[in-house]
Amino acid sequence: MPTRCAAADPTHPTQRAICVLQEKWVLHIVHALLDGPRGFNELGRDVGGCNPTTLRQRLVALQEVGLVARRSGEEGAARAVYALTPAGEGLRDVMQAIHTWSLQHLHSTRVPHPARPAQDEPARAQPTRRSGGPQAHDGAPIAAQAASGSPDGT
């Protein structure tokens, strides 16, 4: 993970930390693991929205920098369990500081998501779904209209 942050000065501790923590999903993973060890699927559910490939990549990178440890689960089970290392646990105060800062400075009940328009922005038109054959204006397949002889498919 740190090698992808070419602009960071390797001698500057804050830049090195930002380089590790800025990756998408990293703080979500750390936040979930602050509640204790998790299996991969459980962690994926707790993080929410992170696809399995990305989750696996982030976990490997966090292991490489020493924030997360992977260990085998119960004896005989192939299940892996992920937990924060002492260095990862050291982020507890950082996460608490983010929580406190959010309460003090993000007064809005709805913070705009970067991928979604803000409430005062007009929503962009969504592309029409074209798969599954041609659709009638009411969403019924055109074939159903033709078979019934009526535009509403009845």
What do these coordinates show?
This protein has 154 residues and is mainly α. The chain is built from 7 helices and 3 strands, in the order H-H-E-H-H-E-E-H-H-H. The chain has a domain at 2-105: Arc Repressor Mutant, subunit A (Orthogonal Bundle), CATH 1.10.10. A 3-stranded antiparallel sheet has the order 1-3-2. Strand 2 (68-72) and strand 3 form a beta hairpin. The longest helix has 14 residues, at 92-105. Residues 126-148 have low confidence and may be disordered.
In CATH, the topology of the domain at 2-105 is named: Arc Repressor Mutant, subunit A
CATH architectural grouping of the domain at 2-105: Orthogonal Bundle
End-to-end distance: 58 Å
Structural class: mainly alpha
Please write the string of helix (H) and strand (E) elements.
HHEHHEEHHH
Largest sheet: 3 strands, antiparallel
| CATH class wording of the domain at 2-105 | Mainly Alpha
What is the CA-atom radius of gyration, in angstroms? Answer: 23 Å
Low-confidence stretches: 126-148
What is the CATH superfamily classification of the domain at 2-105? Winged helix-like DNA-binding domain superfamily/Winged helix DNA-binding domain
* SS element count, helices: 7
How helix-rich are the residues, as a percent range?
40-55%
Shape: globular
Strand order of the largest sheet: 1-3-2
- Proportion of strand residues: 5-15%
Mean pLDDT over all positions: 77
Count of DSSP strands: 3
